[in-house]
Amino acid sequence: MFKILFILTCLPIYGDFCAASQGSTSSTIISTTTEASTTTLTTSTSTTTTTTTSTTTATATSSSTTTNPTACKTCGTITHELGNANSIDFTSTVDEDATTGCSVMTIECTTTATGELVSLFYQGNTTPDTDNTDTITRTLTCNSDNEWHNALVTDAITTVECVSEILILAQTVCGAINVLKNDPTNSLDVTQTETTLADGSLQLTVECTSPTAGTTVTLIWNDGINGATPSTTNTIEATLSCGTNGVWELTQTDVTTGLPVTNEITDIECLFL
Q: Does the pTM of the predicted model rise above 0.70?
């Protein structure tokens, strides 16, 4: 706080004023007290810090490279054809060949019908694949075209049928056996009867009979080279099979070893004693 002191003097030049003051020269002291108010302005500076968070999204691109499996491993399944009255089901098992790495399918079919044989038919073919037994096992191979194949079929195999029945096979023709009569007195005629069996194979029955009761007869094979078969009566009979090479075959028991021995027979003679 401070004071300002004003001294006013009435001079003659301010006549009116002085007159009011009875013409006297006077001094008026005016004291003014001025109180100084000090205002302190506090400026609050608000600093706003903007933090920019930069979020970087890392997109992990997984580069998946699909390698096609070996083509010869991707053959599909085959159809078990069961449309025939004699069709029976079979097993088909797929494994990997240890050498090639390719898939192989093992087909196995077995019949339970007594006296019947099984055969396989591929893609509806009419030619049977058979072992002439009640069980057959075959292998199919998956190739690079994703197709099943075997050595018997040129086309891709997608259907297989197993048939159980009495098979009539293509016959091997065997000619008649030559009948020898080396002994004009005792050599006899030989009857030859050919029969087709149920499996299609051929069988030959040879028979010789002595006209005299109480005598015996003997069959001599290949002029004695392959032995002889004697009888205990005046009649004798033997059975031969038609071999794959077109020659009749006779199976006998070896007297020394006791084992069966098969010989091809082209000549026969029957003698009575």
A: no
Q: How far is CA 237 from CA 22, 189, 242, in A?
A: 197, 13, 17
Same domain, 158 and 191: no
Q: Which residues contact 120 (CB under 8 A, 6 or more apart)?
A: 107, 109, 128, 129, 130, 136, 138, 160, 161, 162, 163
Q: Which of 198, 234, 240, 200 is nearest to 215 (CA)?
A: 234
Indicate whether 152 and 184 sit together in one domain.
no
- If one counts the domains in the chain, the total is 3
Q: Per residue in 145-186, pLDDT tens? A: 999 999 888 889 999 999 998 765 555 689 889 999 999 899
- Within 8 A by CB and 6+ apart from 3, the residues are 31, 32, 33, 34
